[in-house]
Amino acid sequence: MSDTATASDSAVEQTLPYYEPVGSECALFEQAYQQRLPLLLKGPTGCGKTRFVSHMAAKLGRPLFTVSCHDDLTAADLTGRYLLQGGETRWVDGPLTRAVREGGICYLDEVVEARKDVTVVLHPLTDDRRLLPLERTGELLEAPDDFMLVVSYNPGYQHILKSLKPSTRQRFVAMSFDFPPPKAECEIVARESGLAYDRCAALVNLASRLRAMKGQDLEEGVSTRLLVYCATLIAAGMPILEATQATLVEPLSDDQDVQEGLLESIKATFG
Amino acid sequence: MSDTATASDSAVEQTLPYYEPVGSECALFEQAYQQRLPLLLKGPTGCGKTRFVSHMAAKLGRPLFTVSCHDDLTAADLTGRYLLQGGETRWVDGPLTRAVREGGICYLDEVVEARKDVTVVLHPLTDDRRLLPLERTGELLEAPDDFMLVVSYNPGYQHILKSLKPSTRQRFVAMSFDFPPPKAECEIVARESGLAYDRCAALVNLASRLRAMKGQDLEEGVSTRLLVYCATLIAAGMPILEATQATLVEPLSDDQDVQEGLLESIKATFG
Amino acid sequence: MSDTATASDSAVEQTLPYYEPVGSECALFEQAYQQRLPLLLKGPTGCGKTRFVSHMAAKLGRPLFTVSCHDDLTAADLTGRYLLQGGETRWVDGPLTRAVREGGICYLDEVVEARKDVTVVLHPLTDDRRLLPLERTGELLEAPDDFMLVVSYNPGYQHILKSLKPSTRQRFVAMSFDFPPPKAECEIVARESGLAYDRCAALVNLASRLRAMKGQDLEEGVSTRLLVYCATLIAAGMPILEATQATLVEPLSDDQDVQEGLLESIKATFG
Amino acid sequence: MSDTATASDSAVEQTLPYYEPVGSECALFEQAYQQRLPLLLKGPTGCGKTRFVSHMAAKLGRPLFTVSCHDDLTAADLTGRYLLQGGETRWVDGPLTRAVREGGICYLDEVVEARKDVTVVLHPLTDDRRLLPLERTGELLEAPDDFMLVVSYNPGYQHILKSLKPSTRQRFVAMSFDFPPPKAECEIVARESGLAYDRCAALVNLASRLRAMKGQDLEEGVSTRLLVYCATLIAAGMPILEATQATLVEPLSDDQDVQEGLLESIKATFG
Amino acid sequence: MSDTATASDSAVEQTLPYYEPVGSECALFEQAYQQRLPLLLKGPTGCGKTRFVSHMAAKLGRPLFTVSCHDDLTAADLTGRYLLQGGETRWVDGPLTRAVREGGICYLDEVVEARKDVTVVLHPLTDDRRLLPLERTGELLEAPDDFMLVVSYNPGYQHILKSLKPSTRQRFVAMSFDFPPPKAECEIVARESGLAYDRCAALVNLASRLRAMKGQDLEEGVSTRLLVYCATLIAAGMPILEATQATLVEPLSDDQDVQEGLLESIKATFG
Amino acid sequence: MSDTATASDSAVEQTLPYYEPVGSECALFEQAYQQRLPLLLKGPTGCGKTRFVSHMAAKLGRPLFTVSCHDDLTAADLTGRYLLQGGETRWVDGPLTRAVREGGICYLDEVVEARKDVTVVLHPLTDDRRLLPLERTGELLEAPDDFMLVVSYNPGYQHILKSLKPSTRQRFVAMSFDFPPPKAECEIVARESGLAYDRCAALVNLASRLRAMKGQDLEEGVSTRLLVYCATLIAAGMPILEATQATLVEPLSDDQDVQEGLLESIKATFG
Description:
Chains A, B, C, D, E, F: InterPro entries: ATPase_dyneun-rel_AAA, CbbQ/NirQ/NorQ/GpvN, CbbQ_C, P-loop_NTPase. 6 copies of one chain form a homohexamer. Chain A is of the alpha/beta class.
């Protein structure tokens, strides 16, 4: 690993980030890694995709390079660019190139947000050639066996204009994520917030009611992350109604009617 | 703190900006700060969000880095960029990076106006990792305990094309702001303008009538700021009708009918 | 004042540009200046807004920095930028920054034409902080008491896509301008053109007829400026019908029917 | 005049380009020049606007700076820019700045095609201040008495999105151009092509028939320029039908039906 | 001619590219060249426009500068730009400037694809001034008598947004091209492919059937170029049905029904 | 070959990538190569176009330069650009230029995704001139006999805005690809995955059922590549239902109903 390896890489190698498996997702990830196949994760906001990837990277002992994709992310942000430093132009590898050179896991979060040139740069890496051509340096990198590409997106709010083309999708082994089942989610919330298990159970119970409102009034159901926020504030002594208002109502909607619907569910649970 | 700390930072540490609390907003802000959770403020124009954040920053003894977001604000404006200085390229931290390095509060005003790459740069800072990756310098900054991210927007005039995605919203503890209740607003206006309390009360009374017109004819109700302007001009000797015309009518609308409706309310109060 | 102060600044300090007051606009301008409040002028094309601001700047003895806003004006055009000069990068203040540093009046003409980042750069200058953050130089300028910000626009032809957001508008004391009343306009036209007062009266009389056609056929009524042009050409010996054709018909419309309507009014007056 | 004055400037001072006056356009141009008023020319393609401006510039003994406007023309293309030359950045005046410095006529052809920032840069030059602010160099140039600004456009095919704003239009004295009356046009065509006057008369006669088709089938009537082309080819020995096909049919339309309509008129004249 | 003259220029001067005249097109081209008039060629894909221009350039003994226009072609691509070379900025002429300086033929293929600033740069070159202003170098080049400008486009698939403005079109002498008449086309195909004349006749016969399908099912009729491809493959020993499939069916359409329609015509000819 | 030739080029010359011919595609490719005609491949995602080109390049003993086209690919990415290296600007050939200089095969994958200037740069290379003009270096390269241009696209999901213009298409010999016939596909899947032939046959059988759903519910049928993925995971010990879920269901659709339809077919085959 190069001397510019980031703090996060080192951290990854030492402690295994907590992750509560729900099904056979760990096995599938490992098989894809062993067979050198790229992996696509699909699932809603805040359900644990990023945590899962951190967990698996640590378990497999590989450095993790995470990139949050967005409209203005260019292929050069992934592969690298020439920078002027001390009167010299010096090539600086991007995170994808580093993962290929060093043999690590490159995780592109919300890949559908990226520009087209980003997804196309992935093509030669995701067929049997496993190549990364760096046109600017004239290099053609061959990915080592311990390189893996993982991408994710949320199928719940893709635009028509923003979706993966079949010619990109069909290059990945894929799996769907969802919020964890109640028991697992209770354990996650309790572990992360320090709130007692049975108080977390009430929150998880509430979450399933709120999630049932999705599609009608809510763009997205309440995430496990927000449940952790809520439990954290309650554990710190904040009254339940204030904590739920700040974490399970206000972040979900600006609409007064929707907010009242959410509050009713909350009062029905804790009132 | 670095030697380039701005005048405003120093000021913040010495005098506590005046702020009249309305509910439990100070407690929620402090809890979010203690628990290292990012905070989202929602509320109309000129109701005191910026002042509130200044107040809390001073109370917590942390420097404040405020960024007014807009269409052309890029991620680099927040994180920093290389500048050519004296034949050398030198990295200059942006306000977000400074807040992370120095442990301060970074406040992004009207965050929905920013480009997508800006909101995405916030993602790793707003999950449990609290990381700020600087791809250009190869650094991966871990936010210290006394770093806090606060963002705000006005839910009243979001466009369809400009709104926070659920995957961003659900990363924040959130609270709604509104204009202060009459008594508190009177005190604010009197204190800021130097006009006698009872004359301010008449203006606040008028404001509630004008705010009732919002939605029908007015895009946004009259702000506390404009009441302060009005009281300031009256305190300086300007006739009431001229002062209200210049501060409570002309800034609110260009439409002749709407202006006349506003004037009628004014004359009914002061005529 | 810096040694690069422009010729216009010096001129401003020596002669008071002629301006014929119509109401209490001078008093309101002075009060806003004394109370350090930003000012918004609204009014049609060529009615004297720019002249009024020049007049007030001279009266108050402050240098004036005028910026005509447009689609491609960026925040950097107002605040300044680094320029390469003699192998060195040197920071060059923009007009807004100069007005803040030197204590002058910065006038942004047709502010609704500017890009969003321009209006947002004005926000910290237009609340009680009166600050101008220069992110590129790391400075945070506090505006002195003799700095004033004045902006203007023409409410007559704003697009839906181009209007001031309430969060910007509500930061200004505002006033409406219109064409001067007949007597004042006669005096202005006579003084500027050198044409005899009673001949100017006939032109002003004609102008009020032509302005009545606005909205039906004309996008904008004939401006005082065009009346001055017309009177100037007549004073120079041009026949009345030719002069009015060139200044009160051709500049107003390309439509043959509208032009004939205008000509009829002209012939009814001078025929 | 600077040592970089162009060949065309010199030419202008020596020979008076041929121009056949149609009405009082020369007098109006001279009056506008004497009174320091900017001038707007309106008229169809190829009717002689550019030639007229060349003629007047020569008559008044002023250098002429012509700029053909287009979508990508920026304010800097008019005012000037810094260029890197021999390791130094050197300011290079644009044509508008040269005209202001040297006292010449700046002619912006098809001004409606230009970007908004171009028209706004003209504003301070077209009110009584007659100023050209060069923000990049920090200069504020005052236009000398022998500077004149002339702009033109074709009202026949303006788009809704491309038109002069009233706030720009009302800064100009304006006049409409049309194709010259038959006798004048015959003289022009004969003089330019060398074809005998009576053969030119037949072409001019044909042109008036073809121009009558405009609006129904033709976007624009046949220009005087194309008549000169046609006469030139006939004078060089080309058969009439071939010459008219190549100059009065093919350049006007791609539509087979329209072409046949044009051919019928031609055959009716020459058949 | 400068020492950077391209290989193609030299070639042009030595061998006359084969061209089979169809009508008086060579005479018209020569007349336009003699009279210094610009020329516009209109016609479908692959009918021989480019070959015709090469032929005429060689016949007239002038170097040819061909530019294929596209969306991103800028005026600087035609006129030239400053390039950094060995620490020096050096001006490098574009193909249009070279043609003007050296006295050659500049051919802009598919000119409607170019950006607006490209067509406007042609305006001063296409009126009687025949000037090319190079604003960046401050030069004003006068075109020599042996300079000629030729442009072309395909009227068959212009978009509404992409068409020559009348003010540009009316600057050119124009002519329409079409596929050559059968006998000429047979000779062309036989000469280029080496296939026997009577076998080529069958292909040309087939082409006229396929061209009749244009407009209904086909965007564009089969080009002479594709006939040459087809004959070349047949001459090389490929079975007729395979050769026609690969050259007269697949390149014309992706639609199964259209392909079958084409195949039926082919089988009816060769079956 | 230059000393910067990539690893892939060398590889190509040593081992012949496995390819299972389906019809006369190899003969057509060779004929096009011999006759110096450019080739267009059409076909669905993952059916083997890229593999076919690799195979033919190796068979013909020519280096292969593959470019995946996308929205932001510019002509300079193909032809080359000046790069600053060690204070010097040095020209670096792009892949197309290298293929022309060295005599190789340049393959542009998904060419319809490229910008217009990319397709236009191919025009002089795809007519009888076979030229590549490098405007920036002033070179005009003539392609050697062993240069060949191959492009591909997927006709199944072209947008209206993204398609090859006839003037580009008609420059290519073309052929359609489809998924291989069952027997060939079984052999490919078995060879690539190591799974027994008869188990592969069941998968290929399933694929034909799933492909029948295309158009109704699926944008694109399951690719041979995904069959290889599936067989690979099964060969590695993964249960059939899990492997098919991860490779033949999740990568094809996010729609619950479609996924269930796919699963039914799978269960009907393996249940």
